[in-house]
Amino acid sequence: MSERRRTSLAARGEPLVWLLGAGQVLASVMILGLLAFILVRGFATFWPKPIERVELADDRVFLGEVAREETFRPMREEGSAEAPAAQHRRLLRTGNYDLYGDDFKWISEGEVARTERTADAVLIERLEWGPFIGFVEEFKSGGRVIAATREEAWRLYEERHATARATWKEVRSLEKGPLGAIFHEINALRLELRRVELAHGREAAEFAAAAARVAAEQARLLGESLAIGERISALKEEMRKDALVLSEVGGARIELPLYAVVRAFRPNRLSLGGRLGVYFARWGEFLTDEPRESNTEGGVFPAIFGTVLMTLIMALLVTPFGVIAALYLREYAQQGFIVSAVRVAVNNLAGVPSIVFGVFGLGFFCYLVGGGIDALFYPEYAPSPKFGTQGLIWASLTLALLALPVVIVATEEALAAVPRSLREAAYACGASKWQMIRRVVLPKAMPGIMTGVILAMARGAGEVAPLMITGVVKLAPELPVSGEFPYVHLERSIMHLGFHIYDLGFQSRNAEAAKPMVFTTTLLLICVIVMMNIVVISVRSRLKRKLSSDFF
Amino acid sequence: MATTASASAKAAHLQSAPVNSLPDPLDQPSTIHEAVLEEAAAVEVERFNLWYGARQAIFNVSLRVPERKVVALLGPSGCGKSTLLRALNRLNDLIPGVRTTGDIRLHGDSVLGPDVDVIELRKRMGTVFQKSNPFPMSIYENVVFPLRIDGVRNNKLLDEVCERSLKASAIWDEAKDRLHASALALSGGQQQRLCIARAIAANPEVVLMDEPCSALDPIATSKIEDLMLDLKQEYTVVIVTHNMQQAARVSDYTALFYYGRLIEYGPTAEIFQRPRRSETADYIQGRFG
User: Fold this and answer.
1) Gap between the Cα atoms of B278 and B264, Å rounded
2) Which of A318, A399, B23, B200 is least enclosed, having the fewest CB within 10 Å?
């Protein structure tokens, strides 16, 4: 009886499966690890930390929240044979940049004499100079001290803060709303006059008539703006009345008007609910407000808005271009050397560094196309450009160009996957080539085309380099969508989350303070992209269901 | 063109057939039974030759398809019967390098000329393929597709055509409650009957069927065979098959093809019971093919 043969390990392919599994695990761990890192750091940023009062052996005193801790090995001193032992140190965020000229202080374990959590310590987020950490000593109103103890002053702060902020917001909305509109109108009148001048010359009767009309209008608008200005002055007068007298841990006192306090709380006295309240209030501000303090504080709403709008416009632009190009390449063009060359060129386009696309976009779209539009349609804006500079539409177009290969390749694949039998069936029914493509091939290929759009959107939303030079700025004064005609201002420059990350991380005055915000903004950018993708993916899966199920 | 890959694969397959080692009798003229000539013809094929590139696939075939009859094109794989069928509605145009001589006429109108409006020509024929190929649309839209591309917008007319076609292809009872569901949710046999409904929706003069049952189970096959018998009341049907029993069951006339030649053509009963050519007898008795 012969021995039964067994299939060898290699033949069964098990080692290969293990290898594949290991590769998959490695990839997953890296991706999930990165995501988890960003999630943890991003979500932790806004959690209020306790404030510690640290007394050093040399009698210096610091007050601040512990930003992070680490173990380090001090430098070996000259002449000593032994390496010093590892030490523990803490990074204390002391705030009070206006007083100290610094936000952070490293404190080594060895220097510390005493650490305590002072109950009265207050953290104040203010409009300028970053956070204040110290104590609220007095409450002043109209220059007079009306509360002289810490408890009393805090009580009055809690009582009056909301009103002061409401007044401040009213001033801001007056300045941005009606006053801004008036200045827009005055500017529009100036441009109108300039247009008449360019058309008829300075001596013409038309110009004189227009000048008189514009002058009258401008006088009326100026009058209106003065009325609003008076109202603003009155409000400002009122909101400047109340102020907090603050002291830092060394005893120096400053006065802070109440309206300049964005948020104040006593971290060491907060209950869990109070902490959650602060946490979500900070998130709310981050998501809905405008940035301040050169983007390191406040919110990122304009950047969210700009990112989403730009990505959507990009998708709207790239989809028809990509689909048309792929349709021609795959269905109509005579297959041969030229088409192969075009296909290779398209694929290689995907490998061009994105900054090159940016430079091209700046030169071609902004200066050539935009400048041309300005010269043709908006001569009255000269010498300042309207379309001939960085703008939303040019950034979107540049990104569309960048993402075009993705859409073309995906669409070509989708078209190639439509079975020949379907095409022949359509022909056999008497369809022309276009009818066949329009009614049979495109619907069948649509899910594959959508996949290309999803990839293009993800690619575009995460791109920064080409945007920096074609339309994204550090701080955009106005959103690209507004209440003024024509409502969508495609020529305006925008803010962008990706650029915001770069700006926070590498361009801000205090990188240490901005670091947590970098993680939070990254988290937000990922969430925004995920949400946009979920929308497109759900559309795609509905399409797929429609193609294959009972429900049409 | 995206369609070329598999088509040229088939062309290559035909080219590799050992044409040169054919036995001599193949070069004899086709044997045509007199009965065929007595009927009025819907389609006439005259001295038709077809080349895939340099290699000839159809040799000098002449064939009359009688009005309102079922004609089966029978023969082993690669004998050119599908190619002939595709020549009738000029689907071969989609394959580069195909060249033809001879003449094909549909009710007297030439099919092959360069001036022929191929789109209009195909509207006069309905085609059913080997593999069911419903479009990714609802059942309703599949059936009325030929009318839609013709620009018909009258919903009442479309509804009528849909119902009539689905009834004629014996799928109305199964489909009437889900007309607006996706056609891809139907079973294989149902899909093939839907394709038949689509093929007859525009009232074609001829229905061409290219091995319509080869991918179906026996029950679905018998349903479609019954359907063919019904169809010939109104339509002329040309069916390609390599299944002799099927040809015997459904067709009035049978044409036997072998290596691109028409060997024998006559009434089905005659072909199966009293073949005049030895090749026919051999094929029917299973000695080759």
Assistant:
1) 10
2) B23
